[in-house]
Amino acid sequence: MTPPHRDTGYPKRDRQSDPEQASLLARHEWTLVGLLAVLAFALGCFGYAQTMSFAANGGPNTAWDVAYASLRLFIFEGPEETAGWPLYMQVARALAPMIVLYTAAKAVWNVVEEQVALYALLFRKRRFVVVCGIGETGFRIARDYCLNSSKRVVVVDNDPLNALAAELKNYGAIVVCGNAMDPLVLLKSQVIYAKELFLCTSDDKANIAIAKNAERLTRRLKHTEVTSMENIARRLEPMVGGEPPDVSLRCFLCVDSPDIYEIFSVHSFFEINSSRFAIRLFNRRETIARNIFRVCAPDLYYRPATRGNDPMHILFIGFEALVREMILQAALTAHYTDFRLPQITVLCESENKNRVERFRHRYPHLDQTIDLHFVYTDPMTITPETWYEMQTNTHFNVCYVALQHDVESILSARRLNRLRRHSGLQPLNFVVCLNQQNFLAEIIDDDFEPIIMNKIGLPAHEPIEYFESLDETISIDIVVNEALDAMARTLHNAYLNTQLAGGGSSRSNASIIPWSELPAHKKKANQHAAAHMDVKLRIANCVALPIDAKETEAQFPPDDLMMELLAQLEHRRWMADKYLAGYSYGEVRDEDRMLHPDLIPWEELTEADKEKDRANIRQIPHLLKLQDQKVCRMYKGLDTTEGPQPVFKQA
Hints:
By secondary structure, this protein is α/β, with parallel strands linked by helices.
């Protein structure tokens, strides 16, 4: 289900504020000033030529005197008595000094503009954001705020020639040049009074250091200042997910390295959540992978129903960080009613063997969730014979391409599709995941069609989709409002209400706390459960639609047989989640040793444990209604006039 858009809490700016749409006057300001200066000089020359007495007439003046006198008008050296002067001479005498004054004022303003703008932020406490590190990620989040929020934007970057920072300045951002690791630079940017702080430098360790400095600076706030900013936030921001708005400085820390992320996701510093400072770890690659599997999930292209159908077989091209995250997403969500492990093949160069070993070592129970194989060859130079053999041994249902360079990803997908067509093999859907890490990406993606959920309309000769990873993911809605977690938040809040109604408390149950205070691993558990909800709906030939949609609400699950299938599927999904978290089977539950007695086949579960999975299936319609959605039967194009035709390919 597509999460409903949640507003940022402030009125949105009109997209016409884009500098490319600025007025003609603003775009040609200095051309106009120059033309006015020339006009003033010309009028002065013409006027002096009429009023001076020249040598030809017995006077003392020459043509040079005309030019010199006209120039003197610009420095307030015009004559004081002008009785009898023509009108155009009066205009020149007034216009020339005005042009000089305007130019001087602009020059002074260019020097003090940044300081004035930064000082003015003291009157906009909790109504501006600070973005440190203006690469492709920081640029997109800052641009989104400039165009779609009334919050002011301050960007901090240590490169004075950063073209992206210069572009943001044209959008209205305040640019501070300096090293964000320096507390003085953070103080200059007024970070302690900001609403959000985004740390998007290319160095994960630097991001963490900046976050620590920012947290220290917030301790300087006086209690009266904190109270004042709390009142501002509560007055201007709406409730989010049934919870009051955050009143602190929210720090969004971008960490891409899985090793660093694993260490700090459970560190005490990253559990800070006070009225002064709250920190959120943001794993860009993981979020992108989740977003890709939201709109390009494997079962949107093919879904096995029974063991009589071919199993799900996914091909990944490359083994970069994004591919590794997508493999994990497949392990968590690619579970269907044939109850077999999804097959995954990775085509990558042999230089990745060390990465592969580390990946397997990090997830020792990965083979319990997927059937994973590697083919070591260069995707750009793979021979037609090897490619033909790979597809004839077992057909791939979908191929995700995510190489380091976007150009190579695009060419690989097109070349492999061309080889498939020449060999007469059946169609293979490609999803090219673009990194968008350089300016070239802004050019090559101009003609790409938007991603749609209905995959049947993809052209058979070239079924290739292009997912613009950063453009589709780095936004206020996803990063700040956690749009991808809308259902996960709803899931947790429903659990919270149930526990509180039953007399539970945070003392007896550590999970009875608001979503914003949940530890990272418990958030992930809710995220994984929510991510598979769409798959369950599609298996039952259902879809989530807005509550006011014209389609009739459908019963879910449709019958007892589907209930049992989905409950069993939920148990398998839960086991995959536990396996990837590092759990193993143990007769007695032991969280310290990561042992769990329920890591057993469905048939061996007690009836009480099976009923828990059934309850999770029954609550899906209720959870959707909490998000103003309902369950409907899935029709082709969601058009009931065409009859009950499945939207997606199903075996």
